[in-house]
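As noted in the main text, all predictions were made from sequence alone. Below is one such record, for Anthocyanidin reductase.
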Amino acid sequence: MIKPAIQGVLNVLKACARAKSVKRVVLTSSAAAVSINTLNGTGSVIDESNWTDVEFLSTAKPPTW
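Prediction:
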């Protein structure tokens, strides 16, 4: 799941680098990328090291997935 996302972003950035008219790129993400994780307790600081627990999702099957 992560490798295809990274490759997709790299493809877009490389295309933008080749295009002379692109002045900037804004990359946005979803809070869902880090929000469903059983390891994140209340009051936890969430940063780039916190990813959604995919194994938890496959067993819990929340309605949004």
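Helices lie at 2-18, 32-35, 54-60. The chain has a mean pLDDT of 78. These features were considered when defining construct boundaries for the mutagenesis experiments described in Section 2.9.
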